């Protein structure tokens, strides 16, 4: 993996960490903004993860043409799930985002078995996905505690 991808990927966890901390540290009456910011960022990241597959599908060699439809589907589905999650109350919405981020990584692991995902990307992806999912679940716990 290119060093900038590692650094930028790690930096991408900072908004997750900051909004999760705020969701626990702010008084319950102002916690809603931090929870919304966490969900909105989770939505952006989940949509970004889908876009990776759109790019892979469009740039794939002809020998991978049979994977075009599933790749394009995986390019669109995360954005739709992210949008639905943002419309939900904080606890189920944040839990859905965490689950979807991990599920996307699991599907990518299956794709890697067919040589469709770079292994360096996949390793980085799991580290970042676990960090993001933990933050989203911690935010859901903060939302649950403020009810």
TrEMBL record:
Coiled coil: none
Transmembrane segments: 7-26, 32-56, 124-144
Domain of life of the native organism: Bacteria
Record key words, sorted: Membrane, Transmembrane, Transmembrane helix
PANTHER family in the record: TRANSMEMBRANE PROTEIN 69
Protein name (record): DUF3429 domain-containing protein
Organism: Belnapia arida
């Amino acid at each position: 993996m290119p060093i900038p991808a590692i650094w930028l990927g790690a930096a991408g966890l900072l908004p997750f960490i900051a909004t999760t901390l705020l969701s626990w540290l702010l008084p319950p009456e102002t916690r809603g903004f931090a929870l919304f910011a966490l969900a909105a960022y989770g939505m952006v990241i989940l949509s970004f993860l889908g876009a990776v597959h759109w790019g892979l599908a469009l740039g794939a060699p002809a020998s991978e043409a049979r994977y075009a439809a599933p790749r394009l589907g995986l390019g669109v589905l995360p954005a739709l799930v992210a949008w639905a999650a943002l419309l939900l109350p904080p606890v189920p919405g944040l839990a859905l985002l965490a689950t979807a981020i991990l599920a996307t990584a699991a599907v990518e692991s299956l794709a890697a078995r067919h040589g469709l995902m770079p292994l360096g990307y996949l390793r980085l992806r799991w580290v970042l996905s676990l960090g993001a999912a933990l933050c989203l679940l911690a935010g859901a716990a903060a939302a649950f505690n403020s009810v």
